[in-house]
Amino acid sequence: MTVIAEPGVAAAVPASKPSRADNAVELRDLAIIFGRTKEALALADQGANRDEIRDRTGAILGAYKVDLDIRNGEICVLMGLSGSGKSTVLRAVNGLNTTARGEVMVCHEGALVDVATCGAKTLRDIRLKTVSMVFQQFGLLPWRSVRDNVGFGLEIRGMGAAERRAIVDEKLEMVGLSNWADKQVQELSGGMQQRVGLARAFATDADILLMDEPFSALDPLIRDKLQDDLLALQEKLHKTIIFVSHDLSEALKIGNRIAIMEGGRVVQFGAPADIMLRPADAYVAEFVKRMNPLDVLCADAVMTPTAKLSREAGAVMMDGDGGAVALTLCSEGKPLTLMINGQVRTIGAVDVSGAVTRKGDVVVAPAELPLKTAIDVRRQSNYPIALVDQLGRLAGLCDHEDIYRGLLR
Amino acid sequence: MTDWLTTHKIPLGPVLATAIEWLTDHGQAFFDFIAIALSALVDGLTDLLLWIPALILVAAFAIGAYALHRSIGLVAFIVLSLLLVINLGYWEATMQTLSLVIWATATCIVIGVPVGIAAAHRPWLYQAIRPVLDLMQTIPTFVYLIPTLVLFGLGTVPGVISTVIFALPAPIRLTQLGISTVPEALREAALAYGATKRQLLFKVELPHAMPTILAGVTQCIMLSLSMVVIAALVGADGLGKPVVRALNSVNISMGFEAGIAIVILAIILDRVCKRPERRAKRRSA
Ligand SMILES: Nc1ncnc2c1ncn2[C@@H]1O[C@H](COP(=O)(O)OP(=O)(O)OP(=O)(O)O)[C@@H](O)[C@H]1O
Ligand SMILES: [Mg+2]
């Protein structure tokens, strides 16, 4: 999970633009139009919306002014209602949709290449090696066995059967389908077929994976399982994944960052907590309204940051102005000693899952403690939770007040 | 009024006749070459089929059918019905017809499948050839039997050519159908993994269209068989000849015997060719 800057400061745009070297995909002023491009672009530049453009030119504004930086190794989710242009943007990344304007920069063999202008040969090379894709309806070839489907990308690349087989078997093992290698794909359930789709995408060892609603055609339980599997695989493989979803809960669950789209434009791009706590407009708010913040937020999104805490003689006052509970910090800002009513007490700790690692009167917890767990931890202690960042420095305090405020927004 | 219409007759027929004449005058060498090559192929295959002892050939057919379909019933039918054909004395004519059908079908596939693929990839081309295909299937066979006779002379060749003209639309249409119904999603999946046009054709489009193309081939065989009598009219050897002779001499028994041999050949070819298609369908269903 991305570390969020202080609440209130972080907006839709990341505070500091990451260096270009960090990015796997950069979309710059991307516009995609189906139909008469020129007239439609001119109208869009004059501020016409999608419906007006369609009525006046018959062209459909697929995407307009899309600017996204997708970092290496992150899962970026494109989210929005049906027809909002998610697939359109996704398919621009591997050139399945032609762009009307703007750049689609993809990190291919160490350099950023513009897919829109690179020419057929480079585009094919990008598709062979750098970008692979998972489809909503799986896109498997029904007359082929599972193994031959997984090896499809390698076969297209011209790899020999023997070499292919070793890789394919490894990927099948990875998605748990080793025993199904020789079956026809039609014999598999939907969830299994999508695993085949995943294995096929992983087989080419591409750095960038495009997933167009890969789990939408599956029933909820299987979907949940596959989301977990994907996250577990990502933990190991660190791919850059662009994931399309129309389901905010899915987006919040798997996305490091989420781009919310409406009418071909990106209306907000940020971390899940950003979207939850600070929806950019009414459209995003409408989505967020139905979400349970407990499933999404972490304690650091609701805490009172260290800078705002009341202090007395350098020590942080944990009971506000009561003055009875004082936490002194060392020079680096790590919690050092705890004084309650003038007596030294022990500092306890829990890990990110809420399990007690050290007993004590005040609990120190990692800042990315899920809000659900934070509630539990706070209930079992008499004092606010002291949240620390990855370096062990006090990030802020999380009290009942903070939790309620976060839940009510 | 009608008088005026009839007196100014448009020289449609004469124009076409002149065109054919022009072809005979200027393309004789070309047509001769085709005639010689085709008759060599058909006669060669016929000679080969007749050179092999009949019983051994029957056994070979039976084994081949079993290898393809694993069906005892089909094998029994093939053996018994072919023995009946031998018994009635139509073995030679049956092999001649088989050879003609095989070459006509092969020609149809060689021309029809590529044309069907091209038409599937270019909608304008399909629009353009559709009326031609309709014409080929609806125009009475005798109409183009005459020019083929003029161009290729009497014998097996005009029979094969007429058969090809009549049967060709089936593989073209069905190949076009099979290729153009490849789901867009499959095409896109292949493109997304970097497939070239060629790879797309051989790894996605043709495998997907294969059952439909095979149906076209089966249809083509049946249409070829339905032409044997007409082919016999221009001198092609085979089962059509006894039928024509029976017609001329009002010989009921000969007509029936030759007819039964044609039906037997049709059933065998149909069963042998059709099954793989159905099996493929079941697999992908
Ligand atoms: N090939 C195309 N030709 C014409 N219009 C298209 C094409 N592809 C997409 N569109 C239009 O572009 C708009 C955005 O489509 P897109 O498929 O990107 O939506 P989406 O957000 O993926 O929606 P969904 O959740 O339904 O998949 C839609 O109005 C669609 O009709
Ligand atoms: Mg879509």
TrEMBL record, chain A:
<dbReference type="InterPro" id="IPR022473">
    <property type="entry name" value="ABC_trnsptr_Choline_ATP-bd"/>
</dbReference>
<dbReference type="InterPro" id="IPR027417">
    <property type="entry name" value="P-loop_NTPase"/>
</dbReference>
<dbReference type="InterPro" id="IPR017871">
    <property type="entry name" value="ABC_transporter-like_CS"/>
</dbReference>
<dbReference type="GO" id="GO:0055052">
    <property type="term" value="C:ATP-binding cassette (ABC) transporter complex, substrate-binding subunit-containing"/>
</dbReference>
<comment type="similarity">
    <text>Belongs to the ABC transporter superfamily.</text>
</comment>
<dbReference type="GO" id="GO:0015220">
    <property type="term" value="F:choline transmembrane transporter activity"/>
</dbReference>
<keyword id="KW-0547">Nucleotide-binding</keyword>
<dbReference type="InterPro" id="IPR003439">
    <property type="entry name" value="ABC_transporter-like_ATP-bd"/>
</dbReference>
<dbReference type="GO" id="GO:0005524">
    <property type="term" value="F:ATP binding"/>
</dbReference>
<feature type="domain" description="ABC transporter">
    <location>
        <begin position="48"/>
        <end position="288"/>
    </location>
</feature>
<dbReference type="InterPro" id="IPR051921">
    <property type="entry name" value="ABC_osmolyte_uptake_ATP-bind"/>
</dbReference>
<protein>
    <submittedName>
        <fullName>Choline ABC transporter ATP-binding protein</fullName>
    </submittedName>
</protein>
<keyword id="KW-0067">ATP-binding</keyword>
<dbReference type="InterPro" id="IPR003593">
    <property type="entry name" value="AAA+_ATPase"/>
</dbReference>
<dbReference type="GO" id="GO:0016887">
    <property type="term" value="F:ATP hydrolysis activity"/>
</dbReference>
<dbReference type="Pfam" id="PF00005">
    <property type="entry name" value="ABC_tran"/>
</dbReference>
UniProtKB/TrEMBL annotation, chain B:
<comment type="similarity">
    <text>Belongs to the binding-protein-dependent transport system permease family.</text>
</comment>
<feature type="transmembrane region" description="Helical">
    <location>
        <begin position="141"/>
        <end position="168"/>
    </location>
</feature>
<keyword id="KW-1003">Cell membrane</keyword>
<dbReference type="InterPro" id="IPR017784">
    <property type="entry name" value="ABC_transptr_choline_permease"/>
</dbReference>
<protein>
    <submittedName>
        <fullName>Choline ABC transporter permease subunit</fullName>
    </submittedName>
</protein>
<feature type="transmembrane region" description="Helical">
    <location>
        <begin position="48"/>
        <end position="68"/>
    </location>
</feature>
<feature type="transmembrane region" description="Helical">
    <location>
        <begin position="213"/>
        <end position="234"/>
    </location>
</feature>
<dbReference type="InterPro" id="IPR035906">
    <property type="entry name" value="MetI-like_sf"/>
</dbReference>
<keyword id="KW-0812">Transmembrane</keyword>
<keyword id="KW-0472">Membrane</keyword>
<dbReference type="GO" id="GO:0015226">
    <property type="term" value="F:carnitine transmembrane transporter activity"/>
</dbReference>
<keyword id="KW-0813">Transport</keyword>
<keyword id="KW-1133">Transmembrane helix</keyword>
<dbReference type="Pfam" id="PF00528">
    <property type="entry name" value="BPD_transp_1"/>
</dbReference>
<dbReference type="InterPro" id="IPR000515">
    <property type="entry name" value="MetI-like"/>
</dbReference>
<dbReference type="GO" id="GO:0005275">
    <property type="term" value="F:amine transmembrane transporter activity"/>
</dbReference>
<feature type="domain" description="ABC transmembrane type-1">
    <location>
        <begin position="94"/>
        <end position="273"/>
    </location>
</feature>
<feature type="transmembrane region" description="Helical">
    <location>
        <begin position="74"/>
        <end position="93"/>
    </location>
</feature>
<feature type="transmembrane region" description="Helical">
    <location>
        <begin position="254"/>
        <end position="273"/>
    </location>
</feature>
<dbReference type="GO" id="GO:0015871">
    <property type="term" value="P:choline transport"/>
</dbReference>
<dbReference type="GO" id="GO:0031460">
    <property type="term" value="P:glycine betaine transport"/>
</dbReference>
<feature type="transmembrane region" description="Helical">
    <location>
        <begin position="100"/>
        <end position="121"/>
    </location>
</feature>
